[in-house]
Design a protein that fits this description.
disordered N terminus, five-stranded mixed sheet, 7 strands, elongated, two-stranded antiparallel sheet, alpha+beta, about 450 residues, Heat Shock Protein 90, about 10% strand
């Protein structure tokens, strides 16, 4: 059993990312204005409040450069301008350079505000890809090392000399460098996981929306068949009577025969549209879980694949449960069955067990099973066991190509698991000792088989 997104891939196409990144120019500009305000306040407090001597004109010039840059960017770009990864890296590198220049004038790493070197790197790690984050981290490392060696004396009280020991200054340098490395890795990992989860949830919502559209179409087809069945039957009866009364072989008789044939054809089409397998997503009624599964697996049965449904009540469990036709539930189970059908050699077993407290559905196949290296990660987006198919690498935040109609992106199991949990169930995945994969879904009684539609499902 492998992992794949269900057939919503024709609608949910991962388009190639645009040249725009995830950070807006206004965001970086606002942060730079905040830095300009803080730097200006600190500068004037130290110079005028504490009377510490420092190169005031040069420091004002460095701070003013950031203000001028912000004004120029505001004039040249709209407020909603979204930066590319390269542009954001350049702007953040300027912030590192500006801070390095300011620290050079005010004591280097002996200045307690040297800690601010971490800010641009953390921003990059949480918004940019890994490559640009490493570039900015390397640039920050170089700036920190240079300022540690070359800088003007730390402003201090007149007639007092503050000279930190060399070993202590090396410790400050090491702490800042380690801090840059640790915080950048930590922030990037958290940001990448959030980005992947956001993309996966967006795919889940799109798949569920497709199921609801199918449910609406099924209900509309059933209503159309019901409403149009009677007038079409009347047309067929009248056409048959006309055909009998008109002279055989006449043009009018042929027209009546054609009219009757077309009316019968319309009735056949409407009947086919309203068949249970076509309107199975109708969430207005309950259906036996056995009947629903039999309906679901019909499309996957063929000569080389045997699918067996087993009912295993426990003790005084009562009759076969009737469940609501929730789009979430049907999409998820269809996904699990489709995966089993793709990887099974000859046989799939679906076992339904229930008692007074729980309802469990287990899908097993006799295929190769799940790869051991991905078994523990199942349930995360972009995890796939399909050989030769695309899944995101550890350093990617989203697909880098157009995957319209492609399978094996590692979203299928994530979507199915998420939707099962939305119905109040839990999913467990393991490999069978005798070979093959096993997916088990368990619900407390009274969730999907309640007398009234469950609150956890949407559209019910």
């Amino acid at each position: 059993m492998g992992l794949r997104p269900q057939k919503f891939a024709d609608e949910f196409a991962f388009a190639a990312p645009t040249s725009r990144g995830r950070v807006r120019l206004r965001t970086l500009s606002n942060l730079r204005w905040l830095a300009v305000g803080g730097q200006s306040a600190t500068l004037f407090i130290v110079y005028f409040g504490l009377a510490y001597q420092l190169p005031l004109a040069e420091c004002i010039g460095v701070i003013s450069a950031s203000a001028i840059l912000n004004v120029a960017l505001a004039v040249h770009f709209p407020a909603t301008h979204r930066l590319t990864n390269l542009e954001a890296t350049i702007f953040l590198a300027y912030d590192v350079l500006q801070l390095a220049a300011l620290l050079y004038l005010t004591g280097g790493l002996e200045n307690p505000f040297a800690l601010m070197f971490l800010a641009p790197v953390v921003i990059a790690a949480s918004t940019l890809n890994l490559g640009n984050t490493l570039i900015l981290a390397g640039f920050s490392f170089a700036a920190v090392s240079l300022v540690a060696i070359v800088h003007l004396p730390l402003p201090w009280a007149p007639h007092e000399l503050l000279q930190l020991p060399a070993l202590y200054q090396v410790g400050i340098w090491a702490s800042i460098v380690i801090g840059i490395g640790f915080t950048s890795i930590y922030a990037w990992r958290i940001g990448s996981e959030a980005a992947r989860m956001s993309a996966g949830l967006a795919a889940t919502q799109l798949a569920l929306a497709r199921e609801h559209r199918m449910a609406s179409i099924g209900a509309l087809a059933a209503a159309a068949a019901h409403e149009l069945g009677t007038p079409l039957g009347t047309i067929a009866v009248v056409a048959r009577e006309l055909e009998r009364e008109l002279p055989k072989g006449s043009e009018q008789a042929e027209d009546a025969s054609l009219l009757r044939a077309q009316a019968e054809r319309c009735r056949t089409i409407l009947t086919r549209l309203a068949r249970p397998e076509q309107s199975v997503l109708d969430a207005t009624n309950r259906i036996s879980v056995a009947a629903m599964l039999d309906d679901l697996v019909g499309r996957y049965r063929h000569e080389e694949l045997q699918i067996e449904i087993q009912l295993a009540p426990s003790g005084d469990a009562g009759p076969v449960p009737k469940i609501w036709r929730a789009p979430e539930l049907l999409h998820s189970l269809n996904n699990f069955v489709a995966n089993a059908a793709d990887f099974a050699n000859h046989r799939i077993e679906i076992r339904v067990a229930w008692d007074a407290t729980s309802l469990q559905l287990t899908i097993e196949d006799d295929g190769p099973g799940f790869a051991p290296e991905i078994l523990e990660r199942l349930g995360e987006p972009y995890v796939t066991s399909r050989p030769g198919n695309y899944a995101l690498g550890e350093t990617q935040l989203s697909p880098s190509e157009n995957f319209t109609g492609q399978q094996g992106m590692g979203l299928g199991f994530f979507i199915a698991k998420t939707l099962i949990e939305q119905t109040g169930g839990r999913v467990q995945v393991r490999n069978r000792p005798e070979g093959g994969a096993r997916v088990s879904c368990r619900w407390p009684r009274g969730t999907i088989d309640a007398e009234r539609p469950p609150n956890g499902t949407s559209g019910l």
